[in-house]
Amino acid sequence: MQYQISGTVMQTVAIDLSPGETVYSQTNTMAWMNDQVTMDTHTGGGFLAGLKRSFGGGSFFVTDFTASGAGHVAFAPRFPGTIVPALLQPGQSLICRKETFLVAQKSVTLELAWQKRMGAGFFGGEGFILQKVTGPGVVWLDLSGELVERDLAPGERLLVHAGHVGVFEPGVGFDIQMVKGFKNILFGGEGLFLATLTGPGHIWLQSMPILNLAEEIGRYLPRQGGDTGASSTAGGVAAGAALGAAGGLLGGLLGGGES
User: Fold this and answer.
1) How far, in Å, CA of 108 to CA of 123, rounded?
2) pTM of the full structure
3) What is the CA radius of gyration of the chain?
4) Partners of residue 132 on adjacent β-strands
5) 45-56, pLDDT tens digit by residue?
């Protein structure tokens, strides 16, 4: 199996498959393929497997791409970003955001990454829903915007806006903490929680969270009554902040102890 990553801002990964080789992706990521590749869409292990995957922010179905001859298939993310290839050894895992999985060899498993503080993880927002990929095999991950890599020393902690967390090794401790200060919560614009990453281990951060991009685009979309200004956005932001605060309080109660 050979592959080539092309592009700068809107990258693609093109994979050349030998006869019988298979890669799989979640739905709606294939860009083009030749007539030597066949598709097979399924639940990836049954109804429960699909349900768990969708619960973790992925698609209920996955699609296998298998070469009958000299196959060629390409995949493209839906947002500007950086494609990161990772060769995983048997049993080696990476923890990633729910949006980052693009495609992998069939031998790589994709599953929900359960967190110790389940309540805080789920009520803290979509940025805290994580997946786990486990080898052996190659997986291609898609990070939004530019890529920043760091190695955390044992005990070193980094506080990160949830949207900027991309991928990290399982040895890195992942938790969330409430933003300190009443004014910071109301007017800081960073949300109610920050992610905390604690070393040792390697981390991949992304410069442009998809939610941030969606919010900026949303400011310019037409509203009911023709109002496209900031005033029409304020109500939605206020409602979202109220829901987020309520969810955060529930998360703190449910996630106070380890499961």
Assistant:
1) 29
2) 0.76
3) 20
4) 95, 111
5) 766 766 666 665
